[in-house]
């Protein structure tokens, strides 16, 4: 069903809830129905595939071995960006596509979860660097960057230091400001799953695929999964299976009995979090590092600083930061700060693994950020690579390929083209109206402006449901966060705001 005014599909919000009851129901359905598509992997790619397919009318099952976004999709740099670095690699196609996606997210699909973020890039060389970066950012703006966000601006040294007094003035001749967009990645992935479920996808976490099943001619026709809570095993039947497991791609391919021409190389990226008062700046900072770039941006009460880029050939479930990673981040960020950060300033560290399509020998920073879709075995398509920003395009490609294969194997699916560019995620439709509603009631509900903003950014138009809850149980709106700071030496301080 579609909204008469906007023409957008109307979502079944009741079906989108992902609680334990719904999981139990989903498991029951997964064990009894036969699906058009079984999607393995509940990161942004798998969730995107599930939404794309379900919104085209396919019956879809989605399984995730841990929790939604528990893999790379909760450990990213949290940017919807075109990728200035890819401009330097002359990968204009990727940048243009990513900027288009960034605009869609900001303006239409999930404006509550994605916000513009302004960076400054301090310059050290008067002529060539200003020209080089200015030309790159001009291209960035003209390729579709500007519109959803303001254009880049050249700034004097004085202006930069007003905005970011914590930057070292030594050697700085001025700077440039530009915009990208920031997202709460794990929440975004979860809302994608919810939106897919609202379109009828049957989704369950803590279900690990431990094998694939084949029919009498060798076509993949489902999977064996283990429920990691009950330890029970069951079979899920599907006409086609999509492998969207990121760095775990090869593990699932081994079950299929055939593999795509590409392999996936895990590349580790580490971020650190330091308290907001450690860097005196009102604006996020773009830093050129030894062999790449660093983004220093605000994240709640912290600065999020990252990232690194090194090959990872160990345990995929538990990527870990090393002291070399931390030293690299501190050394490079300290190049632009007047009060240097030390290990004692670090409140948190996380590491994630980029699923990069493996190319020629070389550094992982040179491997492709583009994605690949292949069907190495009938009934089984693998989608891998790409970036968080381009998940929607990846999903569309994977579903197009799956429908092609379904048609080839005689299962006629009269599925229309992808419509996800016109499907706002749960919480997006009615966002402005809900924002007005909660702001006008903030005083009576006892909510500070900061809390209102945080709730809106988290729940979007679903804050209306929260308001109903807060009215029926007044204590529920009170913030009661206990915070703890763990020091590098093992010490710990906790308190209340
Ligand atoms: C440090 C870092 C920074 C990044 N920064 C950015 C950024 O700022 N912007 C950007 O656009 N991109 C960024 N990326 C890239 C982006 O995060 C990834 O491309 C994207 O999250 C990959 O999503 P995915 O769904 O393919 O993989 P994942 O999120 O890893 O999802 C795969 C899922 O499959 C599940 N799975 C595995 N095996 C099984 C099984 N047997 N059964 C069931 N489920 C299984 C896993 O548990 C996992 O949840 C960054 C990546 C890293 C590492």
List keywords for this structure.
497 residues; alpha+beta; FAD/NAD(P)-binding domain; D-Amino Acid Oxidase, Chain A, domain 2; 10-stranded mixed β-sheet; binds flavin-adenine dinucleotide
Plain-language structure description:
The chain is an alpha+beta fold and 497 residues long. Among the domains are: 13-72 and 187-263 and 368-422, FAD/NAD(P)-binding domain, CATH 3.50.50; 266-357, D-Amino Acid Oxidase, Chain A, domain 2, CATH 3.30.9; 431-484. Helix content is 32%, strand content 26%. The chain is built from 13 helices and 20 strands. The strands form three sheets. Strands 3, 4, 5, 6, 11, 12, 13, 14, 15 and 16 form a ten-stranded mixed β-sheet that branches. Strands 1, 2, 7, 8, 9, 10, 17 and 18 form an eight-stranded mixed β-sheet that branches. A hairpin with a 2-residue loop joins strand 17 (371-377) and strand 18. Helix 2 (44-55) packs across helix 10 (391-408), helix 4 crosses helix 5 (128-145) and helix 11 (431-445) packs parallel to helix 13 (463-472). The structure holds flavin-adenine dinucleotide. Flavin-adenine dinucleotide is lined by residues 40-46, 63-66, 70-73, 75-79, 81, 208-209, 244-246, 248, 252, 269, 307, 352-355, 386-389.
């Amino acid at each position: 069903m579609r909204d008469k005014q906007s023409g957008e599909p109307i979502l079944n919000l009741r079906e989108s809830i992902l609680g334990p009851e719904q999981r139990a129901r989903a498991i029951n359905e997964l064990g009894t129905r036969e699906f058009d598509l079984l999607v393995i992997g509940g990161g942004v790619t798998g969730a995107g595939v599930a939404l794309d397919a379900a919104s085209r009318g396919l019956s879809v099952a989605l399984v995730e071995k841990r929790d939604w976004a528990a893999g790379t999709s909760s450990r990213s740099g949290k940017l919807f960006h075109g990728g200035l670095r890819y401009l330097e690699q002359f990968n204009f196609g990727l940048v243009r596509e990513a900027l288009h996606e960034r605009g869609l997210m900001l303006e239409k699909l999930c404006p509550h979860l994605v916000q513009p973020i302004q960076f400054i890039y301090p310059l050290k060389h008067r002529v060539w660097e200003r020209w080089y970066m200015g030309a790159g950012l001009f291209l960035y703006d003209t390729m579709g960057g500007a519109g959803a966000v303001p254009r880049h601006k050249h700034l004097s040294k004085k202006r930069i230091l007003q905005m970011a007094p914590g930057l070292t003035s030594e050697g700085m001749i001025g700077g440039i400001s530009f915009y990208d967009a920031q997202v709460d990645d794990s929440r975004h992935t979860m809302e994608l799953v919810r939106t897919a479920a609202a379109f009828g996808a049957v989704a369950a976490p803590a279900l690990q695929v431990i094998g694939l099943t084949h029919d009498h001619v060798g076509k993949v026709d489902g999977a064996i999964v283990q429920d990691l809570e009950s330890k029970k095993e069951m079979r899920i039947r599907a006409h086609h299976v999509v492998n969207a497991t990121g760095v775990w791609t090869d593990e699932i391919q081994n079950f299929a009995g055939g593999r795509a021409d590409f392999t996936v190389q895990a590349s580790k990226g580490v971020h650190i979090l330091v308290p907001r008062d450690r860097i005196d700046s009102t604006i996020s900072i773009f830093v050129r590092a030894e062999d790449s770039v660093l983004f220093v941006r605000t994240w709640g009460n912290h600065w999020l600083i990252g990232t690194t880029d090194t090959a990872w050939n160990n345990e995929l479930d538990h990527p870990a930061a090393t002291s070399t990673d931390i030293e690299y981040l501190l050394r490079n960020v300290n190049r632009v700060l007047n009060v240097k950060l030390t290990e004692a300033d670090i409140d948190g560290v996380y590491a994630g693994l980029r699923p990069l399509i493996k190319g020629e020998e070389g550094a992982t920073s040179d491997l492709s950020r583009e994605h690949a879709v292949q069907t190495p075995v009938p009934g089984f398509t693998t989608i891998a690579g790409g970036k968080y920003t381009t998940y929607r395009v990846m999903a569309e490609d994977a579903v197009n390929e799956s429908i092609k294969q379904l048609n080839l194997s005689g299962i006629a699916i009269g599925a229309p083209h992808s419509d996800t560019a016109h499907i706002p995620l749960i919480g997006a439709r009615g966002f402005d109206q809900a924002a007005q509603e909660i702001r006008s009631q903030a005083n009576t509900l006892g909510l500070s402006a900061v809390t209102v903003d945080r709730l809106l950014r988290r729940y979007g138009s679903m804050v209306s449901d929260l308001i109903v809850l807060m009215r029926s149980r007044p204590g529920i709106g009170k913030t009661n966060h206990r915070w703890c700071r763990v020091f590098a030496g093992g010490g710990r301080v906790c308190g209340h705001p």
